[in-house]
Amino acid sequence: MPRVYQTRQQKAVQKLFSARPEDCLTAEEAYDQLTIAGMEVGKTTVYRAITRLLEQGLLRRYAAQDSSEAASYQYNPCVDSHLHIRCMDCGVLEHLHCDEVEHFSAHLAHHHGFTLDEGQTMLYGLCKACQGKQQEKK
Amino acid sequence: MPRVYQTRQQKAVQKLFSARPEDCLTAEEAYDQLTIAGMEVGKTTVYRAITRLLEQGLLRRYAAQDSSEAASYQYNPCVDSHLHIRCMDCGVLEHLHCDEVEHFSAHLAHHHGFTLDEGQTMLYGLCKACQGKQQEKK
DNA sequence: CTAAGTGCAAAATGTTTGCATACTT
DNA sequence: AAGTATGCAAACATTTTGCACTTAG
Fold first, then answer.
1. Residue A107 lies in domain
2. CA A24, C1' C16: Å apart?
3. Is A93 helix (H, G, I), strand (E, B) or coil?
């Protein structure tokens, strides 16, 4: 792994993500944010910076649910790895800090020989609010 | 929802997926399979047939892990919905038929107000074989 | 000074759309 | 006959790459 130079642009991208560990941003959104902030970072550079951060394990990547939508990225403080759940209707992202997850993960390891990567996994379903909405429709 | 005509092509695509409910195929792969089988179905038509099957709930869609990789689709016999786990190293797909999943899902519903959609969710991690490989590398 | 990063334009990829034609019902 | 599907080519959106130039270490 080649060394990572601390350029103005690289620092700007990392800072953007690390400043909001709760948020998921697409490359485009990150680019826009930087532009608004007057940071002058090329879009290509944003992509390359993100790639570098992924390699360093500082970002996690979430594939889009629908096709032809962009992937999003989130700051990944290694210490606090946890599952995320995404509502398929409203798109809200929730962070699952919960012992039950550890229990389930342990079960997978023991009974299925599978080591769950919480950082890479996104659970999909419906949040409380959207379950209500779905029922109204019926 | 408009009615779905049973064309030669539509039937061919559905048959392809339903014949192998264990397999995940990308649109491209489906197209290739059909072409090899001499079915003469256009790629556009494959995409449109897949879209229709998704709308009907007969197919589930899995977003690609790495960027610039294609999404894959799998036949979805509604009755037997279950979680899937994918090895990030070798790519193997395992089907999780397990009471623990129901237990975890129930927990999510009760304590987090979140209804898990097992069909849409893919767990990522490392399978037994690849955990061994990872350790050797160190 | 050298390895690494930048930014533009162009390519690549997966997917969707416009449209004239053909098929189902 | 009306509604839907097909297939081609072209459009699209996201992401990557080639290349000449700049910057960090």
1. 79-138
2. 26
3. strand
Same domain? For B46 and B85 the reply is: no
**Nearest nt to the B47 alpha carbon by C1':** C15
> Over the stretch A58-69, which tens digit does the pLDDT of each residue have?
998 888 877 767
For the purposes of burial, counting CB atoms within 10 Å of the CB of A98, is it exposed (0-12), middle (13-18) or buried (19 or more)? middle
Same domain? For A5 and A34 the reply is yes
- Same domain? B54 vs B30: yes
Contact criterion met (CB < 8 Å) for A124 and B117: yes
Number of helices (H), then strands (E), in chain A: 5, 7
Q: Within chain A, which residues score under 50 in pLDDT?
A: 79, 137-138
Please name the helix (run of DSSP H) or strand (run of DSSP E) that holds residue B14, with its range, or none.
helix B8-19
Would the pTM of this model clear 0.85, i.e. be above it? no
